[in-house]
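Marked as duplicate of an earlier ticket. Keeping the data here for the record.
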Amino acid sequence: MATFPLPESRTDPDGSAVVRVLGYNIRSMRDDRDALARVILACAPDLVLVQEAPRFFRWRKHAARLAARTGLVLLGGGAPAAGPLLLCSLRATVERTEDVLLPRTPGLHQRGFATAVVRIGRARVGLLSCHLSLAAAERYAQAGLLLERLAALDVPYAIAGGDINERPGGRAFRLLAGKLQDCWATAPWGGEFTSTAAAPHQRIDAIFATPGIEVLGCGVPTGLRGLFGQDLRTATDHLPVLAALRVPAS
């Protein structure tokens, strides 16, 4: 486990932007909401790729409260994306957003993508939050659709992340890692395993980046000021993934 400090957010003289990206399955905020807010605040993210955001009764109100408590802004997703949600800090200027519902297999949950294009300084980057299927065949098809959707954003750089529901050796995970940078594998930092929060033993949540983005570090956050093990265990049933990425000016 790497112990070097994860870089802080900044804009470099060449116009590139160092951004902190957080991927987090929050289990519909059914657990300790105070702990959840503290974890997100301690990670100091610029961009948050959420899975299992509230999507039923008063879902907008719950998502807005989470954003307000963590000093972030709602970007897109939630119920219209079947659960994935995007949050951002005031560093980001929103260019466009789109929520995408995926083809549904009868008897299985509806899945979707929350997508956006934002600018941070002179860096322009696409975003996608996903929560892939529990069924292997559908999950593999959704991984292919994820790659297609990133290409359709028509931006030079993009970041995708979420609950893959599969370990790195699985077909869907390997499809994504074959086309994108698996940020943990590229520059491991912090912890590796994301599930379960109480007894982590597998990596099924990940952040991916297109070629050209420099991965400075990525993993389950540890040793951050204000981040406590008890909060990580009680906020939700997954551990978060935090990445520091340098996105070139474009």
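See parent ticket for discussion. The CA atoms of residues 141 and 166 lie 13 Å apart.
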